[in-house]
Design a protein that fits this description.
Layout (H helix, E strand, L loop, with lengths): L2 H9 L9 E4 L3 E12 L2 E12 L2 H13 L13 E7 L1
Parallel strand pairs: 3-4
Antiparallel strand pairs: 1-2, 2-3
């Protein structure tokens, strides 16, 4: 597989853009975008979670992603002080 073919495949994965972590629930693939801030000497961890409905296409894309970048797909949620959620069909 060439670099341009790989880039094309990754561009088609809507659940990977800006992801720091990806994990699964029973009905969703969840993308976490994690950020850390220090406010008045206190470390605050933010998680912006986007829940994508599981489809056969997304599940096959996830299996491919696990094979090329297993550290991104941890299957565990990263804990955060504050979380926002968005849902995508």
């Amino acid at each position: 597989m060439t670099k341009s073919e790989l880039e094309t495949i990754l561009d088609e994965m809507d659940f990977i853009n800006n992801a720091n972590n990806i994990y699964e629930t029973k009905i969703y693939l969840v993308k976490q975008e994690i950020s850390v801030e220090i406010i008045n000497g206190v470390t605050v961890v933010y998680s912006r979670d986007t829940f994508y409905a599981k489809t056969s296409l997304r599940m096959s894309q996830l299996e491919f992603l696990k094979s090329i970048r297993p550290t991104l797909v941890e299957s565990k949620r990263v804990c955060a002080n504050m979380t926002t959620r968005t849902y995508v069909n």
